Each structure stands twice: as structure tokens, then as C-alpha cells.
Amino acid sequence: MQMQKTRIRVCDVSGSPHQIGSKRGKECGAIGESMVSKTKARFRRSGLKWEDAIRVAHDYMLNSETFDSDYIEWLEGYSRTSDIPYDDLLVLLMDGESSFCTDVLVNQEATGDRGVYSAHTEDWRASDKGHLVLIKGRPKNEPSFLAMSLGGIELDAGMNSAGLSFAGNSLHQDDTCVGIPKLFLARKLLTARTISQAMRVVATDGRASSYNINLGHRSGEIYCIEGSASDYALLHPRDGYLVHTNHYLDERMAKHESSFRTRSGISLDGWTDTVVRYHRALRLVRQNHGSITADSLKTLLSDHVDYPFSICYHDSSKVKPIDRTVTIFALVMDLTRSIMNVCMGNPCEGHWTQVELP
């Protein structure tokens, strides 16, 4: 697949947490205002009051401030320079609790070039395509990083100079509660210098809920950590690869699965695509085992089996507008060479750009 250049919004930040947040607010504030406006409109259509959302957000923040005070400084700096009320930013972080994604992690046992790769699609509201910002960070006393974000506010997937990468798949669990929002884990993961330290972040107590977090390291250590608010399970690679979508794979964690559950029993209605995407990605990895490269992973992320609800996720008129989801970006993170391959929008369009870690 030929690599083509495409425009990516990049926010280059450095310094203390407050300085980083202030720079992001100054450069990304207009995008943040758009996110707040669209979220308020969506809440109104759903009959939700913004004032009630703010009260709930403050309940979630009770433990979050202790968990990551630096992130609070980010948000305060962002609020100050963007003129977006701090409370509105908190609601955005509470609201960003669900998405669809497909992830593949591979190490030297599965690749043809001895590389270690983390591949990710972010399937989310189409209206958020215009809110994407790549953060290039050089924090004081922490590893430098690259992370895709919405509005420079919430971080969705990234990698750091310690050789670590993270990405997440939404899991629908039955034990959600008031606690640390799972979006708070992302910034903390970017500060990790070892994969064991990153694991401890994912398994922190007091979570409101959890993603499946996909962790990779340039050494070839790769793991999935399936979580819920009260539990987690560690998935290990087999033959150098891991694949995950949006349902639990661990038998013990399956008890928390709420996606397939109805009052009358088990139903696959509306959730079959996560099963198909998982098995399709698994099959493609196995077919190419031993010869996988960054380019073959780009091809995998472009796959259209079960279109439009495929690995490369497309819009469908059969889905209510409020629920419509598309792939808004895709990543192939090359941990061996410290390069992030980025595609804005559906990866089948093939507009990939290479960005090096700062």
C-alpha cells in the first residue's frame, strides 16, 4: 500500500502539566467549543439536562483528583486559555465512555521484519472526525509521547519514548459505578516507563468502568487487560499476537458482559459485528503469521468483510443518526522504530502519514 500524505492537526506541547494544558487550550479551544456544543445538543435530544451532567461529573471527580492531579492541571490550563468552563470539560470526559474498535498486537514471533506493532481503529461518532488532534508531547520529567485525541482533551491511543503503547476497546459491563473515569487512565499510561508500571495503572482501584487496554512494548512484550469496574483479567499472547474487539474473551470476565444480555436472556441483536470483526482479524493475522509488517496491518485495518460493520467501519442509513459510528482514524504504531502511522478517517482510503516520536 502506497503511503500518501494527508493533513493532520498537530499540537506540539512541552513543560509542566499546566503549561501543556494551557498550550492545548490555546491551540485547540475552538475544537473543544465545538465538542461541547455538539454534546449539549445531543443531550437535549436525549432529554438530559447539562446541569445534571455536571453534578454527576463532580461525583466522578472525587477520586480522580487524587489518582492523577497532573491531569487536573492539564484541564485547568486548557479551561483558562480556551475560556471553556472547567465543568464542561469534565462532562466531556464522562460522556466519552463508549466506542467500537478493533485492535491487533504482534511481536517478533509473528512479524516478517522483527518489528513490534500495535494496530488500532477508532470507531466513533462521525461528527467527531473534525475534532481529532494529534498531541506531540514533551512533558517535564516524563517520557515524550504521541497520542491521538479529541480536541486535545481526551486521549484515545498513543505511544511514548519508553517504548510503550496503549489503545483501548470499549467493553459493556454490568458493574459500572461512580469512580475514576476510564479516560483518566490514558494520560497516566503515557507516563509509564515500564510495562509492569502500565499494568498497575490499568488495574488501579476505584475505577468507574474499564476498557480492554492493549499494552505493547518494543521488547515484544504484549498484553490485553480486560477490565470492569470491579475486576480484570490478563490475556497473554499466543504465537506472538493478540486480537481484541468489543466483547470479553476471558471466561471469568464474561460474567460482566452486558452487551448480549436482555431481560429474557441472551441476544446477539445489535452486537454481532464485534464477534465478526474479532474472528475476521484473527483469521487475517493467522494467514499472515510470520510475515506481518506495517503495510499488511494497514491492509487488515482496511478489511470490508461484513461491510458496513466491518473492521474498516462505515456509516449505515439503517442505524439511527444518533447511534451512527464510523472509523474516524486508524493507527499502526511501530514500537521498534518509534513511528506512528496515522490514517485520518476510514483506512480503506489509504491516506497514511508517518509521525516520529518527539
Can you describe this structure?
With 358 residues, this protein is of the alpha+beta class. The protein has one domain: Penicillin V Acylase, Chain A (4-Layer Sandwich). Helices cover 31% and strands 27% of the residues. The chain has helices spanning 17-45, 50-67, 69-82, 86-95, 184-190, 195-202, 272-287, 294-301; strands spanning 10-15, 100-106, 117-125, 132-139, 145-150, 154-160, 164-170, 211-217, 222-227, 232-235, 241-244, 261-262, 265-266, 325-334, 339-344, 352-356. The protein has an eight-stranded mixed beta sheet, with helices on one face. The protein has a six-stranded antiparallel beta sheet with strand order 11-2-3-14-15-16, with helices on one face. A hairpin with a 3-residue loop joins strand 6 (154-160) and strand 7 (164-170). Helix 1 (17-45) packs across helix 3 (69-82), helix 2 (50-67) packs across helix 4 (86-95) and helix 5 packs antiparallel against helix 6 (195-202). The longest helix has 29 residues, at 17-45.
Beta-strand fraction estimate: 25-35%
> What gyration radius follows from the Cα positions, in whole Å?
19 Å
Task: Summarize model confidence as the mean pLDDT.
Answer: 92
* Major sheet details: 8 strands, mixed
Describe this protein with a few key phrases.
single chain; alpha+beta; Penicillin V Acylase, Chain A; 8 helices; 31% helix; disordered N terminus
